[in-house]
Amino acid sequence: MTDIVQADFLSRFNRRPAGIWSAPGRVNLIGEHTDYNEGFVFPFAIDRRTVVALAPREDRIIRVASSFAAEAIEISLDELIPENLAGWSAYPLGVAWALGQFGADLTTVPGFEAFIDSDVPIGAGLSSSAAIESAVALALSDVWGLGLDRRTLARVGQLAENRAVGAPTGIMDQSASLLGRADAGVFLDCRSLESEVIPLGFDAAGLDVLIIDTRVSHSHATGGYASRRASCEAGAAAMGASSLRDLGVDDLPRAAAVLDDETFRRVRHIITENQRVLDTVRTLREHGPARIAGLLDASHASMRDDFEISVPELDLAVEAARGAGALGARMTGGGFGGAAIALTPRALVPEVEAAVAAAFVARGFRAPVIFDVHAADGARREQ
Ligand code: GAF
């Protein structure tokens, strides 16, 4: 893809880029909606990437173009505030603005031109947005000579998403995209931002991670995502905690007594999901990847019944995959659409794919898109 992006940059801007950078999408193995509760997550970067070719200009103009939109967007650094940003360009331009909040002097840095291409599916819950943010953040940190570390670049991407895109999301997706490693997951403490790269061993165990993209579209800038976040904050406050991270399974009886039923179930999801992340990491280390399957199933049930962020298509994907031999399955990402993952013995992949496709036909749902992913390296400079 780097050759194509280089050629696209050349034909769009009539010159060669100064460099090419890339960043992957992510799958969250487990730990959903725990990031903004200062809890634990365990995602991995995937072998689908966003590539950005970029070159500084001699003036203060920014021009961004991409393979997924016809028009190039132009803006001056002097006008670069979240309120002026919209559409797809809010992701790269939001990052440029957010770097200004993390030390870049936007009154002196040069403008730039950028061309972006990606094979991370958009709207599938695989963090195509974080892939753009991470690639652009790394590129601009290099070109503007900022020397920011990856943990800070993740916060830059999150701030861009929160302020320029308007989605009140946590730090997980950008962290996975920037810190991922081949065949490994990123175990992240979202309070301290300490992270550990932990080998997954799926390939060696003969396991594939299947993505079942339901093609039910979702947006975290509207509706359910923000209301779940608000419930978590209300639940923590009612329990006298600064965040749900401070509560554990021992606090559940008191939570049941103090909270209304809906808030209690939201809180119970977060408390038990944090525990499941810790259990997944321990189980993986002690017993290998096949044994984490039950935790994936339990995570899905908790999101379906307690956090109520699943949809019928995701539930069906999980049930059909499990029925055809997947060891464990769960929806992944923020919910209300997007994709499920199914941890599947390689020999059973054709059966699982066929069973899921047939189940969708039988229920009259739009055909899902099914493919496998592998844990890949995080953001990097390509050229
Ligand atoms: C989305 C958000 F961007 C993440 O921060 C995280 O909250 C996730 O939903 C749910 O776990 O991907």
TrEMBL record:
Residues 92-180 form the GHMP kinase N-terminal domain. It comes from the Bacteria. Residues 284-361 form the GHMP kinase C-terminal domain. Keywords: ATP-binding, Carbohydrate metabolism, Cytoplasm, Galactose metabolism, Kinase, Magnesium, Metal-binding, Nucleotide-binding, Transferase. Gene3D superfamilies: 3.30.230.10, GHMP kinase, C-terminal domain. The keyword Protein transport does not apply. Pfam families: GalKase_gal_bdg (PF10509), GHMP_kinases_C (PF08544), GHMP_kinases_N (PF00288). Residues 8-56 form the Galactokinase N-terminal domain. Its EC number is 2.7.1.6. Transmembrane segments: none annotated. GO terms for molecular function: ATP binding; galactokinase activity; metal ion binding. One of its GO terms (cellular component) is cytosol. GO terms for biological process: galactose metabolic process. InterPro entries: Galactokinase, Galactokinase_CS, GalKase_N, GHMP_kinase_C_dom, GHMP_kinase_C_sf, GHMP_kinase_N_dom, GHMP_knse_ATP-bd_CS, Mevalonate/galactokinase. It is an enzyme of class 2 (transferase). NCBIfam families: gal_kin. PANTHER family: GALACTOKINASE-RELATED, MEVALONATE KINASE/GALACTOKINASE. Belongs to the GHMP kinase family. GalK subfamily. This is Galactokinase. It comes from Cryobacterium tagatosivorans. The gene is galK.
